[in-house]
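Backbone-to-sequence.
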């Protein structure tokens, strides 16, 4: 194979890798499905959790917030640090953990050419399956699309013994 032909083949393969159909691999989708199944099988419906999102967002989102979910709906959101310069004025900025899964699924299955993200990295809780860390890295030509979401301290509310 000539040098020119080798260079062309490498360039085509590199370009195809940059524009593949997905920004995540099959293993990532499999881990997502396993984690979602764990979350769906949890022994409680209502819960609270703490979340912090680093993004180009309203400043109250960038602080640790305790979110309460009842009946699949966010009913309360309060700053973990009571001495915060950014008081909570509404709970509409937060979503239940099911919403985090929905967003992840949508972004993980969006074709790479249509996604603002270069990569998505997720870590899941081993016991309950909820995402403990989601890192959305935007493409170099996209401004302010990236974010880092951290979830911790999921606590069931009103658990009824079986």
């Amino acid at each position: 194979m000539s040098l020119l032909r080798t260079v062309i083949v490498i360039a085509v393969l590199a370009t195809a890798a940059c524009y593949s159909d997905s920004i995540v691999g099959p293993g990532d989708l499999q881990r997502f499905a396993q984690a979602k199944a764990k979350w769906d099988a949890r022994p409680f419906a209502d819960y609270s959790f703490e979340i912090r999102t680093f993004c180009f967002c309203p400043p109250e989102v960038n602080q640790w917030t305790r979110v309460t979910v009842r009946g699949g709906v966010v009913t309360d959101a309060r700053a973990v640090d009571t001495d915060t310069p950014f008081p909570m004025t509404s709970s509409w900025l937060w979503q239940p953990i099911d919403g985090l899964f929905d967003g992840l699924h949508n972004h993980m299955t969006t074709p790479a050419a249509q996604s603002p993200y270069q990569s998505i990295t997720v870590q899941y809780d081993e016991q309950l399956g909820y995402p403990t860390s989601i890192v959305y890295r935007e493409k170099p030509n996209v401004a302010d699309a990236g974010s880092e979401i951290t979830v911790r301290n999921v606590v069931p509310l009103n658990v009824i013994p079986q």
